[in-house]
Amino acid sequence: MSHRRDVLRLATAALAALPARALAQGLTGHKIVGLVMPTMRPGTVIDMVPLLPRGVGLLPVYLAFREGTEDEFKRGFDEYEKKIAILADHGCDLIHPEGAPPFMVRGLTEETALVDAWQRKYRTPMFTSGQNHIHALHALGVRSIFGATYFTGRINDLYARYFADAGFEVHGMQGLEGIEFKQVQDVPSSRIYDLIKAGFHKSPGAKCIYMLGSGWRTLDIIERLEQDLGVPVVHPQTARVWEIQKRLHINEPMQGFGVLMSKLPPLRDAI
Predict the structure, then answer these.
(1) Average pLDDT over residues 71-98
(2) CA nearest neighbour of 163 among 124, 136, 190, 196
(3) Greater pLDDT, 270 or 188
(4) Of 2, 92, 176, 200, which has the highest C-beta tally within 10 A?
(5) Distance CA 47, CA 59 (A)
(6) Between β-strands 56-62 and 94-97, what pairing exists: parallel, antiparallel or unpaired?
(7) Tens digit of each residue's pLDDT (9 = 90 or more) over 186-198
(8) Burial class, 13, CB count within 10 angstroms (exposed 0-12 / middle 13-18 / buried 19+)
(9) What is the separation of C-alpha 101 from the centre of its chain, rounded to a whole number of angstroms?
(10) DSSP string, the chain
(11) CB neighbour burial string for 153-167, b if at least 16 within 10 angstroms, e if fewer
């Protein structure tokens, strides 16, 4: 219950802090990004807010994925559009349906068609987490990746196929064993660092580390991984903040969170 209260408190605070544009259509000088959050974990927004430039506000709405299975992601997918409609009705400048897995299990082609249709219907620019990760890899100029996720089994093969379909060489999609989906936010970042480092050394040819999943709290290991392994890291939090800046025509780099945030390379469609 305390976790749910934290989420509600965070959502209430976010709504209270919103400029009038998001609720009453009229305040200039601010930009509002609508987020469709796939789970009720508050950590994603908590970690994201300090990374955003001043003047960019968030309007989060929540789904309630709990199991983290392929079947659940397919069953609950239709809820995304209901939340997107709410955010569009509140005048968001940009909408970001978060959660790479629900889109990735449907595949790149279907995801692209859905997002294109939603943008036309709701007249609001938007991008998914998967699209964001592809954009970040393109911006960094890399074609081969080693991936790490907090999932195991066949679903990691679907994630690998998603990137292969997008034209990347995937040198492994390493899962985190022995952790339930509802517990991933509690895994120490040091353990995830060790997982990634060991897997990367077994994956010759990879030129970038890709981290799937916003549930784990790993901002503190991005720069360390880049320094120790000599390759850039695409992290879900820093990647989304980078693309939000690019789409809102903002250019405010931040040190300490990897090359994507410190260099802010331009957004481009392909290498």
Answers:
(1) 95
(2) 136
(3) 188
(4) 92
(5) 15
(6) unpaired
(7) 999 999 999 999 9
(8) exposed
(9) 10
(10) -HHHHHHHHHHHHHHHH--HHHHHS---S-EEEEEEESSS-SHHHHHHGGGSPTTEEEEEEE----S--HHHHHHTTTHHHHHHHHHHHTT-SEEEE--HHHHHTT-HHHHHHHHHHHHHHHT--B--HHHHHHHHHHHHT--EEEEE-S--THHHHHHHHHHHHTT-EEEEEE--TT--GGGGGGS-HHHHHHHHHHHHHT-TT---EEE--SSS--GGGHHHHHHHHSS-EE-HHHHHHHHHHHHTT-----TTS-HHHHH-PPP-S--
(11) eebbebbbbbbeebe
Instruction: Show the tokens assigned to 162.
Output: 């998603």
Structure-block tokens of residue 172: 């492994």
How confident is the model at residue 28, as a pLDDT? 53
- The residue-averaged pLDDT of 191-213 equals 96
Q: Which residue type does 150 have? A: Y
60 forms beta bridges with 35
**Is the whole-model pTM more than 0.90?**
no
Tokens of 270: 């392909």
Dist CA 103 CA 81 (whole Å): 12
Q: How far is CA 201 from CA 210, 212, 233, 237, in A?
A: 14, 18, 15, 24
Q: Is the pLDDT of residue 165 over 60?
A: yes
Q: What is the pLDDT of residue 110?
A: 96
Residue entry with tokens 């999609």 = 173
> Residue 38, Cα to own-chain centre: how many angstroms?
10
Say if residue 160's pLDDT is above 80: yes
Q: Average pLDDT for residues 116-136, to the nearest whole number?
A: 97
Q: Are 55 and 29 in contact (CB under 8 A)?
A: yes
